[in-house]
Amino acid sequence: MELVANYVDFSAHNAFAAVLRWCDTAGAFILNRVNDDAARRTLLRRWESSAVMRSIHAELLVRGSAWEATFAGNLCSGTTVTVDPILTRLGRTSYTLQSSVRVRETGQLLARVETVMVQLDESLTKSVPVPCAWALEPLLETAARAEPLPSLERPAGCFTWKSQVRPSDCDLLGHMNNASYAVLMEDARLAFGAFGAFGAFEPASCLRLEFLAQGKAFQDLTLAVWRQGRHLGVEMENGSLLARGLFVEPETPRPRL
């Protein structure tokens, strides 16, 4: 699937959000490969109304100043990226997609992404079987799974960052858009570096997001942030836990001037 990167996507600060947005859009594209017309229409309708992302694992192959340089030559015309999703797992109520994100003009690989989608009922409160699963079975492909990341236990008294869900952060279902979670967690990560004893952080190489509930417009948010080696944990709350994030810094960060 081809998508044109917007100006906001050119910023390294928004790299994870851009990748999440592109892969979210491409999630419906793979359903167009279903051969049966009735099954395809049903799957697309249910995807638009009640399929939600449960988790995402995004690895950036290009980051920081290199990300911005990739788009700098096309500021006027925009840069086209291609997202190629494949179906790698089909469960009873969920399925897994793996996507590669590239610059169309050069073929440069920008990111690899693994997404777990869950089918909900009409009330968006309970998981239900994936509709027409039989029609998806021919699309299954074999691929290596994303490397597992550790689970970090949140320490007491860690740094917190306050924010709020804006109406523009929300999708057609009235829920906070998946890409907005990445933006707010990146904000909190950088604030933690700026106000803590660490100084500016290197651009992260990987982000794992787990979506536990849905943020809605005007809700106040608290983001707790802590560090453990190369890993930085983030938990987002609005009175209850909405999402967990885990950033991974590169093994060999570039020297700081």
Structure description:
The mean pLDDT is 90. The chain has 257 residues and is an alpha+beta fold. It has a ten-stranded antiparallel beta sheet with strand order 1-3-4-5-2-7-10-9-8-6. It has two domains: 138 residues, Thiol Ester Dehydrase, Chain A, CATH 3.10.129; 90 residues, Hotdog Thioesterase (Thiol Ester Dehydrase, Chain A). The longest helix is centred in the last third of the chain and has 18 residues. Pfam families: 4HBT_2. It comes from Effrenium voratum. InterPro entries: HotDog_dom_sf. This is Acyl-ACP thioesterase.
Task: Describe how the helices and strands are arranged.
Blueprint lengths: L1 E3 L10 H15 L7 H14 E10 L4 H8 L7 E11 L3 E10 L5 E11 L13 H4 L22 E6 L13 H18 L10 E6 L8 E9 L2 E7 L3 E8 L9
Antiparallel strand pairs: 1-3, 2-5, 2-7, 3-4, 4-5, 6-8, 7-10, 8-9, 9-10
Helix pairs in contact: 1-5
Protein name: Acyl-ACP thioesterase
Pfam family, one: 4HBT_2
